[in-house]
Design brief:
Layout (H helix, E strand, L loop, with lengths): L1 E4 L9 H5 L4 E6 L2 E6 L5 H10 L5 E4 L5 E2 L1 H5 L1
Antiparallel strand pairs: 1-4, 2-3, 4-5
Length: about 80
């Protein structure tokens, strides 16, 4: 599963880091805190962290091209 974090959307709430500590963390940027991925995790754990993001800044893409949570919102 590929993980991307849109820093234009991320507000640094830290919900991903709280949902999956040690996998996501916050770093300081010129725009304030932003999330980064530290290491891979199980797909279900990544989905939980992406779902916890209040701005849906985290996008997960599987090998078939499915995107979470974006596919849920579009479909």
């Amino acid at each position: 599963m590929r993980v991307s974090i849109d820093w234009q959307v991320c507000v640094g709430a830290g919900c991903c880091a709280a949902a999956l500590p040690g996998t996501f963390t916050l770093v300081e940027s010129a725009q304030g805190p932003r999330a980064i991925l530290l290491r891979p995790a199980a797909d279900d754990d990544l989905r939980a962290a992406a779902a916890a993001c209040p701005t849906l800044a985290i996008c997960l893409e599987d090998d078939a091209g499915g995107r979470y949570p974006q596919d849920l919102l579009e479909g």
